[in-house]
Structures are given as C-alpha cells and as structure tokens.
C-alpha cells in the first residue's frame, strides 16, 4: 500500500489540470488510486465508488474534489439532468471514471490516468494530457505499482 501512496504523490507533481479522467476496466483500481490521491491531497475523506449516486464530494483543505462515475449513465441527457455542467466549470478538482460516456461535454484541458491490471497486486499507470496539448515531454509513465 505504501507504493500506491508514493505513486499518488508522484502523479500529483505531474498534474497540469484539475480535471482528471480515469481510464481502466472494472476492478482495475480506479477508486483505490483516487483514495491514495485524496490522502496525498490532505483530505480526511475516504473515496467510495459513486456508481449509484453518480457523484461524491470530498473536502480538501482549500478545495473540493468531485468524484464521478458515469458507468450507469445511458445518455448525455442524464448528465445534463443532474447538472454536470455546473461541476465541469466549477474550478474544483474533478475525478471522472468512465468519461467516455460524457466525452462531448468534457473541457479541453484534461489529463487521463490509464490503469491497467497486470496481476492481483500489480498495476501499470500512464498519465497523459489532452491530445491537443500532449507532447512526449509532458507524458508520465509509471510502469508498475
């Protein structure tokens, strides 16, 4: 578990956006990584998957994190109905799981954390910036954690 906390601190150093998209299959460890990021950001909250509530709010010392799980969203209208636009332009941290479900609504300045499960205890993590802003020097790859 110490390794993931170290990785979370390293990820935070490389973030250039407050809108983070989490890409990974079910069970890849997205919420586990979000928990480590919250801890690294000095939050006392514990992340839980917002699959049924769609969004959870976590408190930071001088900010908030809105954690979304769009897995159950079946249309963009559902996202509009709960006011997703207010969150997207709130200037708070946004951690978004299953962002492909609302892709056309996402702001341009995002970063994606891709989590790939290697085995039961090992994940590969790749951090990239929005393709419009991406250069090789701006990508971070953490081979395993």
Overall mean confidence score, pLDDT: 87
**Uncertain regions: pLDDT < 50 for 5+ in a row?**
none
Largest sheet: 7 strands, mixed
Order of SSEs, N→C?
HEHEEHHEEEE
Spatial strand sequence of the major β-sheet: 2-3-4-1-5-6-7
User: Would you report the number of β strands?
Assistant: 7
Beta-strand portion reads 25-35%
What general outline do the C-alpha atoms trace? globular
N- and C-termini, Cα separation: 9 Å
Helix percentage range: 10-25%
Q: Whole-number radius of gyration?
A: 14 Å
Q: Provide a count of the helices.
A: 4
The class by helix and strand makeup works out as alpha/beta
Ordered list of secondary-structure elements with their pairings:
Elements: H1 2-14, E1 19-23, H2 30-40, E2 55-60, E3 63-69, H3 76-81, H4 84-88, E4 93-97, E5 111-119, E6 122-129, E7 140-142
Parallel strand pairs: 1-4, 1-5, 3-4
Antiparallel strand pairs: 2-3, 5-6, 6-7
Helix pairs in contact: 1-2
Structure notes:
The protein has helices at residues 2-14, 30-40, 76-81, 84-88, and strands at residues 19-23, 55-60, 63-69, 93-97, 111-119, 122-129, 140-142. It contains four helices and seven strands. A hairpin with a 2-residue loop joins strand 2 and strand 3 (63-69). Helix 1 (2-14) crosses helix 2 (30-40). The radius of gyration is 14 Å and the shape is globular. It has a seven-stranded mixed sheet with strand order 2-3-4-1-5-6-7, with helices on one face. The chain is an alpha/beta fold. Helix content is 24%, strand content 30%.
Quick take:
The chain is α/β, with parallel strands linked by helices. Helices cover 24% and strands 30% of the residues. The radius of gyration is 14 Å and the shape is globular.
């Amino acid at each position: 578990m110490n390794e993931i906390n170290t990785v979370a601190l390293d990820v935070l150093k490389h973030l250039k956006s407050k809108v983070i998209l989490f890409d990974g299959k079910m069970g890849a460890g997205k919420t586990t990584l979000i928990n480590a990021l919250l801890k690294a950001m000095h939050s006392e909250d514990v992340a839980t998957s917002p699959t049924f509530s769609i969004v959870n709010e976590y408190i930071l010392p001088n900010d908030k994190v809105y954690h979304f799980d769009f897995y159950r969203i079946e249309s963009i209208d559902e996202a509009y109905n709960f006011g997703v636009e207010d969150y997207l332009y709130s200037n708070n941290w946004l951690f978004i799981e299953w962002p492909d479900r609302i892709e056309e609504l996402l702001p341009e300045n995002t970063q994606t954390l891709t989590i790939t499960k290697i085995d039961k205890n090992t994940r590969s993590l790749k951090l990239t910036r929005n393709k419009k802003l991406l250069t090789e020097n701006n990508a971070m790859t953490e081979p395993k954690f």
